[in-house]
Specification:
With 318 residues, this protein is α/β, with parallel strands linked by helices. Helices cover 44% and strands 13% of the residues. The protein has two domains: 168 residues, Rossmann fold (3-Layer(aba) Sandwich); 130 residues, Rossmann fold, CATH 3.40.50.1400.
Length: 318
């Protein structure tokens, strides 16, 4: 069997910031309008290129690139060694890598390709978007080989790995559980996504409940970050909660992120941690799972999941 690890990807240098944002904001599963496709691509392409001027500065503050591409590649190597099987990668918004990646997928001779998203909670805007791209770009006979692990929001291996990450961080920083508020921050989505059947909110809540059981002495809250545009998104918003939270000390946990990137290294670290700390509350960012060996072990366990779905089952209806 061959495994396929799929993720967003991220700019590998500052020159890739603009094309990355254009690809992201031109995705109809991420930005949903009633505009004709060509008009949406033109409009949000312009918005993305303008936004890239600001975002480029944010990337400069985290080293001039996103680590998510490189970490995903290293994670695939570690997982391949653990499973004793090939593990390929696909980076959704790095269009420059698509042709080679798709050719490698087409060349797989195995009768099954097991797809592992690095998105623990399912959304049509993440896992579903990649499934749609595969439906469009891969040959039908290859698409029929794809068997997806839809999500693992409450999977014991995922919960154990993330709670270990949190506990190790608390020990490292010498933060007593009973004196530390855990602020779980997940990426937000518009409420309209949930109203039309997206499972994302309920899966974030599931992950939150399961993790919270491991830290019963710590106050905990769930919030949503990275709002974009005027539409109402899932609440509470992390940035607003930063102005309201009352605690002795706070650790922000990136609930829906398994890899650190711009939304953790800049948005959480530079904006949210700073905002709460400015109110006199010591605040810390818990790293994502990244390349921790126990995360590789957890992914290997998740990869053996038997409750698989086919590619068409992940694609949002128009």
């Amino acid at each position: 069997m061959t495994y396929l690890l799929v993720n967003f990807g991220g700019p590998r240098d500052l020159e890739e910031v603009s094309p990355f944002l254009v690809a992201l904001l031109s995705d109809p599963d991420v930005i949903r309008t009633k505009l004709p496709r060509f008009a949406q691509n033109w409009l949000f392409g312009r918005i993305a290129r303008k936004r890239a001027l600001k975002v480029r500065k944010d990337y400069e503050e985290i080293g001039g690139r996103s680590p998510i591409y490189f970490d995903t590649e290293e994670l695939a190597k570690a997982l391949s060694s653990k499973l004793g099987a090939p593990v390929l990668t696909f980076h959704r918004y790095l269009a420059a890598t698509h042709d080679e990646a798709l050719q490698r997928i087409e060349a797989i001779q195995d009768p099954e390709i097991r797809v592992i998203p690095l998105f623990p909670q399912f959304s049509y805007a993440t896992t579903g978007s990649i499934a749609r791209l595969f439906e469009k770009r891969l040959k039908p006979q290859t698409v029929r080989k794809l068997r997806w692990i839809k999500s693992y929001a409450g999977h014991p291996a995922f919960i154990h790995a993330y709670t270990r990450r949190i506990r190790d961080f608390l020990v490292q920083k010498q933060l007593p559980e009973e004196e530390t508020t855990l602020l779980y921050s997940a990426h937000g989505v518009p409420l309209s996504f949930i109203a039309t059947g997206d499972l994302y909110e309920s899966e974030c809540q599931l992950s939150f409940r399961q993790m919270r059981k491991e830290f019963v002495r710590s106050p905990a809250q769930l919030a949503y970050q990275s709002k974009f545009g005027p539409e109402e998104w899932l609440r509470p918003y992390t940035d607003e909660l930063c102005q309201q939270i009352e605690a002795k000390q706070v650790v922000i946990v990136p609930l829906s992120f398994t890899s650190d990137h711009i939304e953790t290294l800049f948005e959480i670290e530079k904006l949210y941690v700073t905002a709460i700390a400015a109110r006199g509350i010591p605040t810390y960012r818990c790293p994502a799972l990244n390349l921790e060996p126990y995360w590789v072990d957890a992914l290997a366990e998740i990869a053996q999941e038997h409750n698989l779905v086919s590619n068409p089952m992940l694609i949002r209806g128009s």
